[in-house]
Specification:
Elements (H helix, E strand, L loop, with lengths): L15 E6 L4 E6 L16 E7 L32 E7 L20
Antiparallel strand pairs: 1-2, 3-4
């Protein structure tokens, strides 16, 4: 149940999704019910989505994969013992200053993108 991952039922209805794949890619389409709108005046009313996929055989959707050796952080890099707990993260968001059709690189300096 995609809408119950946080143990709270989404109040606007069930999220629906479709999956399609070919020899090299997997494509997902999500439909999330509710009253959403984009605002060029406020970053709080802009679209955002994050995804997490289990990669490792012991990975969980909680605690960034759930590796016990990384429970307090990975400042020195991901420990080798965490390979069975790996997850793949993806995100997309649009802010009031976002230009459509422009790919923005990740900002790892201050965590803003």
């Amino acid at each position: 149940d995609i809408y119950k991952l946080g143990r709270i039922t989404f109040p606007y209805g069930q999220v629906s999704y479709k999956c399609l794949y070919d020899d090299t890619q997997i494509y997902f389409s999500l439909e999330i019910p509710g009253d959403y709108r984009f605002s060029s005046e406020s970053d709080r009313l802009c679209a955002a989505i994050g995804t997490m996929f289990k990669v490792g055989s012991k990975a969980t959707y909680h605690g960034m994969g759930g590796c016990p050796e990384a429970a307090t952080g990975c400042d020195g890099g991901v420990p080798d013992s965490c390979s069975d707990y790996l997850v793949d993260l993806g995100a997309h968001w649009e802010l009031k200053t976002t230009e459509r059709g422009v790919e923005y690189p990740m900002n790892i300096v201050d965590g803003t993108g």
